[in-house]
Design a protein that fits this description.
With 445 residues, this protein is α+β, with helices and mostly antiparallel strands. Helix content is 43%, strand content 13%. The strands form three sheets. It has a four-stranded antiparallel beta sheet with strand order 7-8-6-9. It has a three-stranded antiparallel beta sheet with strand order 1-2-3, with no helix packed on it. It has a two-stranded antiparallel sheet with strand order 4-5.
Length: 445
């Protein structure tokens, strides 16, 4: 029976606890008493305790600490004759810079295999979870940024706005499956990394290749977390023709979170026998597009999302834009079928995207994975130029010089396949990795 009227300040402490537990419980009890009126006394009541725990949860207190708080108040009230039975409040899920809760990242890390790709993905997931960073920061990480210490390692994270590095210290964990220190050491040793980017692509033969771009890291995170290959199912629109509010929010979020890619300029020189060079030039010409199958209902919702608040006029404008986009898409498909040589170096002509992936669409994770593995870039080339200077080195030989811009990275994988398909030709690839703000870009007029 609770001692009714006994002031909280004069409450008897619980007995039979270890010194450390007694100190922890006393701290929680004092924190609770400070939030109560000065004349408060027993019985405390479950309502006051639940409200206090709820306030602590909203302030960001971890669930483990809330468990201690509830146990402390239960013990102190029991020592004063009052029994409590209070449920823990729902806590907020801590999300990383990648927009994923930590528990999902740790669970995905446990599922990674022992092969080279699994070692890389595990290190990637655990660094994203423990450092609270996203794909951009992971793409900036280099081997030089990570140094070993006696009890773990130190990671220097570059802050782009200030240009300074922030040091983060990570300690070894008891469980090797979720230890970022052991996972990074295993990946670095298996990939034989000495300098440069911390995370690299791996081809079908198990060879470590070029650094992963930001879209590539996002794809790996999505694949490891088992995210849906296609956008979520969209409900039908209302009778007025406008999409439902949830669809508009989804389209707006998708539009605003897709970053503009960096564009890399590359010069490709192709030389060899005159006949072979002529055949290659004809084979490389195409419309310069990827003939995806497009869901224009979704495109209309995406176009409407930024201006949905304008009412019926916005709905009409989105419909007109959708119709114009659909007409342009049909024209592009007609050029594709007719073989119109609008682009002098068409990747889809040289390394075609398989039909099932074209049907899945540009938003498909499987299509993005295929492009990353077989092209090295997720978009068609832009601003393709070609010239055929006279080859003075040998008689009966010819030379072509292609200049183009590619999204994210030079399309190394596609160029390697082209070299394999045309063994009689010699290819010289010269990428120009300049800063995107240092000069012209692929979007320049």
């Amino acid at each position: 029976m609770a001692e009714i009227g006994r002031p909280l300040q004069a409450a008897r402490p619980p007995t039979g606890l270890s010194p450390a537990t007694a100190r922890a419980y006393a701290a929680s009890w004092r924190a609770f008493v400070r939030t109560q009126p000065a004349d408060s006394g027993f019985p405390v009541g479950p309502v006051a305790v639940a409200a206090w725990l709820e306030a602590r949860a909203k302030a960001g207190r971890p669930r483990q600490s809330l468990v201690v708080d509830r146990a402390a108040l239960t013990a102190w009230c029991a020592a004063n004759g009052e029994g409590l039975d209070v449920a823990l409040p729902a806590t907020r899920v801590r999300r990383t810079g990648a927009g994923v809760d930590v528990a999902s990242l740790l669970a995905a890390a446990r599922r990674c295999g022992p092969d080279l790709s699994g070692l890389r993905d595990r290190a990637l997931l655990l660094l994203a979870a423990t450092l609270d960073i996203g794909a951009e920061a992971l793409a900036r990480l280099t081997v030089e940024d990570i140094s070993d210490t006696t009890d773990g390692m130190t990671v220097a994270l570059l802050r782009p706005r200030s240009g300074h590095h922030q040091l983060r210290r990570l300690r070894r964990r008891r469980d090797p499956a979720v230890c970022p220190v052991r996972s990074w050491a295993a990946w670095r040793a298996a990939a034989q990394l000495r300098w440069g980017a911390a995370f690299r692509g791996i081809d079908a033969h198990g060879t470590v290749g070029d650094p992963l771009s930001v879209p590539g890291i996002r794809f790996l995170l999505d694949r490891a977390l088992g995210r849906s290959d296609r956008p979520p199912h969209r409900a039908r629109g209302t009778k007025s023709g406008s999409p439902p509010e949830s669809s508009v929010r989804t389209a707006a979020r998708r539009r605003t979170t897709t970053p503009a890619p960096d564009w890399v300029r590359t010069t490709l020189t192709v030389s060899g026998p005159v006949d072979a060079v002529a055949r290659f030039r004809a084979a490389a010409q195409g419309p310069g597009i990827i003939p995806w199958q497009v869901d224009f209902d979704y495109e209309q919702a995406r176009l409407l999302a930024p201006m949905a608040g304008k009412g019926a006029q916005a709905v009409t404008l989105a419909r007109l834009l959708r119709e114009a986009s659909e007409r342009l898409h049909q024209i592009a498909l007609q050029h594709q079928a007719a073989g119109t040589p609008a682009c002098a170096f068409d990747l889809h002509r040289l390394v075609p995207v398989p039909g099932p992936l074209l049907e899945a669409g540009a938003d498909s994770c499987a299509a993005a994975a295929w492009l990353q593995a077989h092209w090295g870039t997720l978009l068609p080339l832009r601003r393709v130029e070609v010239e055929a200077p006279r080859d003075q080195r040998a008689r009966r030989s010819a030379r072509l010089v292609y200049r183009f811009w590619s999204a994210g990275w030079t399309p190394w994988q596609a160029l390697e396949q082209v070299q394999t398909d045309w063994p009689e030709l010699v290819f010289n690839i010269r990428p120009q990795y300049a800063r995107s703000d240092a000069g012209e870009t692929a979007d320049a007029a």
